[in-house]
Amino acid sequence: MNIKQEILDILISASEDLNTEKLSVVFSNRPELCDYQSNFAMLISKELGEKPIEIAEKIIKNIQKNQKKAQKFQFSAVLPGFINIKICDNALSEFCNDLIHDENLGIEKVAKPRKVFFDYGGANVAKELHVGHLRSPIVGEALKRLHYIMGDVVYSDMHLGDFGLQMGLTVLQLKIDGYLDKFFEKNADVSKISLDNVTLDTLNDEYPKASKRKDIDEDFKKQADEYTLFIQQKIEPYYTIYKKIRDLSVEEIIKNYNLLNCGFDFCYGESDASPFIDKTVQIFLDKKLAHESDGALVVDVAREGEHIPIPKKSEDEPQRYKNPMPPAILKKYNGGDLYATTDIATIMMRNKDFSPDEIIYVTDNRQSLHFEQVFRCSKLAGISPEKQKLTHVPFGTMNGKDGRPFKTRSGGVVRLKEVVGMLIQSAEKKLSDNGIVGDKELARRIGVGAMKFGDLSNSVAKDYCFDIDKFLAFDGKTGPYIQYTIARINSILSKVDFKYGDVIIEENEERDIVINILKLNSAYQISYDNYSLNSLCLATFDLASAFSTLYNNHKIITEKNIKKRDSLLGLCVIVKKCLEKALWTLGIDSVDKM
């Protein structure tokens, strides 16, 4: 039962002599007056030369001629020309009784499901995951689940950074520090040599050391470039060393992402696109799209008259522009591949294997220029078909309470494991205050859920403040508040033995719950269209809040009227299912107790 569509159909039927292209229905921002509202009469009044209120009243009269259609709703015309719609209790009751048996809980799926490939995670091999790696898996996982709920076929790839300069830097530093001596012995069989002397802690020390050195030592940087090229060309022993480091890193990366409830269909990396690189480059050469510049192979992607706006320091400052968009570099001066090359080749690989209708990349907003270049190159060369949509979802920075990027007290980068550890520790303290001690998994679910809800409640593109105390509050617009509402319903249902009775909507608190379910279902489409989960988070909180009002005003279990009690219990089940589905979509675990 699609209530909004039923209302639209009635209005369209009653406006059959008018152009109904502009006819739409939205939730009312005055819920005390009505549930839905349409400003259609005001939009077409000028072209008809009539007053909006007169048009609205004519439409209402046409509706009233068909009592059968109108019996579920109350339509009224109000100045200056709005059409107000209130849903009758019997229609809300019918909606609930349909919903309780609907697997998708009334969420309308897309009319034309598509195949969508998600690229998020983006961890770099040989580098430990840190706070900067949090938003990509959190946002990407939620968007993937949202598209699945909406009916799309989805795939996800962690897409590791495993073939770039960081690998050359790491291998070079390990060699200098004596970790790789056996690999470089004369006649060494590299396939039989283990890398047991290199641990994750070793990599955590070696890569930062190499990264700092490259900025002050040109010879070191040049040698690291050569090592990177050796790895990309699969020259031994560099390639075998690289593979062993990759395996060690990937195992730990997957563990970290699992802590965040983030799973991937594929664990591909830049290296997997390597077999497609030569073919990719050749397409650009054959189509005369690439040319040499200072020894590098580049593709011009700037469009005529196009300039890049420079962000203003203040609103009063006049808008200034950079030079036209710089060319994309396919090959470095030494023949090495760059991120653009591997990303374009990866699009070719994905199209060969999956032919997705859309590829969605979820990364830091600082990579916006990079992806714009990659997308333009892919379209210019025909590597991405004309109808295929390439989408970059850029996210802002996770900042501390001081408004600056979140760091340790000493100013260092906070490791991802440390962030999760802080969340678990804080959640354990909250639980101990409620008499629950020693349940670390419950603390993880609550702590991680708190962080994810705090992140996703904001528009993806904006920076947000990481505030553990605020995120973990058991009241307010937080993940734990939603989880607590579900736990409260579980407690109610565990104390009774009942069969589903008909849900009968009679009171304002019950109406408010059902209207908020309708708004929640609408929020799935809004979030889907906007590539941002903040609308879904807000609607989920509103539903939980509406249930709390009902809970506080009614003694559900001890209700003497059995028919009324079973109706309320049925409503509890519906709310629980809707909240659980919303949390699952956000990548957040529900909990049985708190």
Entry summary:
This protein is of the alpha/beta class and 594 residues long. Helices cover 49% and strands 10% of the residues. It has 20 helices and 15 strands.
Provide the fold topology.
Elements: H1 3-14, E1 26-27, E2 36-38, H2 40-48, H3 52-64, H4 67-70, E3 73-78, E4 82-87, H5 89-99, E5 115-119, H6 135-149, E6 153-157, H7 165-176, H8 200-214, H9 218-232, H10 238-259, H11 274-286, E7 290-293, E8 296-299, E9 309-310, E10 320-321, E11 328-331, H12 339-353, E12 358-364, H13 368-380, E13 389-395, E14 398-399, H14 416-433, H15 440-456, E15 464-465, H16 468-471, H17 479-494, H18 508-530, H19 534-553, H20 562-586
Parallel strand pairs: 5-6, 5-12, 12-13, 14-15
Antiparallel strand pairs: 1-2, 2-4, 3-4, 7-8, 8-11, 9-10
Notes on the structure:
The chain folds into four domains: 3-87, Gyrase A, domain 2; 117-161 and 268-399, Rossmann fold (3-Layer(aba) Sandwich); 165-259, no CATH class; 416-586, Isoleucyl-tRNA Synthetase, Domain 1 (Orthogonal Bundle), CATH 1.10.730.10. The chain is built from 20 helices and 15 strands. The chain has helices at residues 3-14, 40-48, 52-64, 67-70, 89-99, 135-149, 165-176, 200-214, 218-232, 238-259, 274-286, 339-353, 368-380, 416-433, 440-456, 468-471, 479-494, 508-530, 534-553, 562-586, and strands spanning 26-27, 36-38, 73-78, 82-87, 115-119, 153-157, 290-293, 296-299, 309-310, 320-321, 328-331, 358-364, 389-395, 398-399, 464-465. Strands 1-2-4-3 form a four-stranded antiparallel sheet. Strand 3 and strand 4 form a beta hairpin. It is globular, with a radius of gyration of 29 Å.
